[in-house]
Amino acid sequence: MARPKIALIGAGNIGGTLAHLAAVKELGDVILFDIADGLPQGKALDIAESGPSEGFDAKMSGTSDYADIAGADVCIVTAGVARKPGMSRDDLLGINLKVMKSVGAGIAEHAPNAFVICITNPLDAMVWALREFSGLPHHMVCGMAGVLDSARFRHFLAEEFGVSMRDVTAFVLGGHGDTMVPLARYSTVGGIPLPDLIDMGWTTQDKLDAIIQRTRDGGAEIVGLLKTGSAYYAPATSAIEMAEAFLKDQKRVLPCAAYVDGALGLNGMYVGVPTVIGAGGVERVIDIKMNRDEQAMFDSSVGAVKGLVDACKGIDPSLT
Ligand code: A3D
């Protein structure tokens, strides 16, 4: 059986890390695509030359021609611009919308059967636009944000409790921005929900509130430290987790920016929700029940995403 083909659209910081991870995990052959002359070819060759030491069998190549992504099983999109200190994700909207238009056309023409994972920011609006431009089925196009935001939350919680992060589960829902919704009630340590851990004296509400805020600011914290760009190791790892769930039909329960039509009171929009990812793409959106406070936070996040989608429609009249 031929190896799966993984196309990485954008060969910058996240794209290169994705390629390295996909190779080391032997998920399939990798094609890196970028408009920057030599960048995808250079990174592909560099990673291929790590193969003999690491011991992976995967073909690595780079290109600036969409024809080379033909037949890709998975496309992970990071093409565009990342933020610098002082910028919000929303500041990237105009420029990255144009990028989504060309990427959407390239995928539609050459890899229409792929499972597409968008990472480009502002995430929820860009995944919506990419789906519109590509015309692929909604369940085959999704965005990576919830896995990363939840991983950040899990990391901070594991540090706070002094336990393995493997035993910490967490859900962060809503749009990938300042309004994201870390759900304490659905986050657990060894199955014990966070509110119970407060009652048990493991932590305090104040400390938990501070961790939730740090999770919301997680991307900005790294932008502030790096100064030249945004996070890329954890974002790439998160998207690889989603790609692996699809390629190996793992039926993983992962939060991602999925098309929601009917669940959670939403009608036809992309936003961060719990999903099941398997060989069918986003196979299910999990219709969780929220309490009044959680619903209010989620509604405000949904409102922020709708505002960005409207802004896209204002910029590009073909998006109606
Ligand atoms: P960066 O290292 O700048 O890489 C972006 C690459 O895209 C560059 O190599 C560009 O040459 C390339 N590019 C630009 N325009 C095109 C085009 N039209 N076609 C193909 N390639 C193009 O950025 P990065 O890898 O650090 O980040 C990529 C994106 O991910 C940015 O928009 C970030 O804001 C976003 N991001 C999202 C998250 C989420 O959790 C959703 C996290 C971190 C970064």
UniProtKB/TrEMBL annotation:
It comes from the Bacteria. The active site is at H176. It catalyses: (S)-malate + NAD(+) = oxaloacetate + NADH + H(+). Signal peptide: none annotated. Residues 148-306 form the Lactate/malate dehydrogenase C-terminal domain. NAD(+) binds at G10, A11, G12, N13, I14, G15, D34, N96, I119, T120, N121. One of its GO terms (molecular function) is L-lactate dehydrogenase (NAD+) activity. InterPro entries: L-lactate/malate_DH, Lactate/malate_DH_C, Lactate/malate_DH_N, Lactate_DH/Glyco_Ohase_4_C, Malate_DH_type3, NAD(P)-bd_dom_sf. Its EC number is 1.1.1.37. GO terms for biological process: lactate metabolic process; tricarboxylic acid cycle. Keywords: NAD, Oxidoreductase, Tricarboxylic acid cycle. Substrate binds at R83, R89, N121, R152. Residues 5-143 form the Lactate/malate dehydrogenase N-terminal domain. Catalyzes the reversible oxidation of malate to oxaloacetate. Belongs to the LDH/MDH superfamily. MDH type 3 family. This is Malate dehydrogenase.
